[in-house]
């Protein structure tokens, strides 16, 4: 996002449209990512996708993404449902909100009813931001794709050693 883009978000109460925010690592981009972005865009007028930095992903998930940030950012920015992409560099979503000024944040329903989800709802209620959950795509996830790639690479590594 440019500074001009961010300045448009500075006064949410005065703008005539609803800004949505869909954060994620977006590593190994798959149908679940596309579904979240598609559903999010249907519930707002302007969608910002938050792409977590490599460092933030490592802190949150215990490992760095397989796809580097600049590539993940370009992929997400190119999705037709996304109006802007923003690099998340802090773990606190309220700090991100202070920069982006969205009206609604979208998360997978695997967050609903968890301590993280409850905290997110409480923190954003104080700022008038809605939290909307979308169904988690159970049959496809970056974790499953990473496991499959790891399993495929083990025989290759053994061949290269042998």
Q: Indicate the overall shape.
A: globular
Task: Please trace the helix and strand order, writing H or E for each element.
Answer: HEHEHHEHEHEH
Q: Mind telling me the C-alpha Rg? A: 17 Å
Helical region count?
7
| Contiguous runs where pLDDT drops below 50 for at least 5 residues | none
CATH topology: Rossmann fold
Please give a structural write-up.
With about 160 residues, this protein is an alpha/beta fold. It has a single domain, classed as Rossmann fold (3-Layer(aba) Sandwich). It is about 45% helix and about 15% strand. It has a five-stranded parallel beta sheet. The longest helix is centred in the C-terminal third of the chain and has 20 residues.
């Amino acid at each position: 996002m440019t500074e001009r883009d961010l300045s448009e978000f500075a006064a949410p109460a005065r703008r005539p449209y609803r800004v949505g925010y869909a954060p994620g690592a977006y590593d190994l981009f798959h149908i679940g990512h596309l579904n979240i972005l598609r559903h999010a865009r249907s519930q707002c007028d302007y969608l910002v996708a938050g792409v977590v930095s490599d460092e933030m992903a490592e802190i949150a998930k215990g490992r760095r993404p397989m796809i580097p940030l600049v590539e993940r950012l370009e992929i997400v920015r190119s999705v037709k449902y996304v109006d802007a992409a923003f690099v998340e560099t802090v773990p606190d979503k309220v700090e991100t909100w202070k920069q982006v000024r969205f009206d609604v944040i979208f998360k997978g329903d695997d967050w609903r009813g968890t301590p993280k989800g409850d905290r997110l709802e409480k923190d954003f209620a104080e700022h008038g931001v809605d939290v909307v959950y979308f169904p988690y795509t159970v049959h496809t996830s970056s974790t499953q794709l990473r496991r499959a790639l790891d399993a495929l690479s083990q025989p290759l590594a053994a061949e290269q050693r042998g």
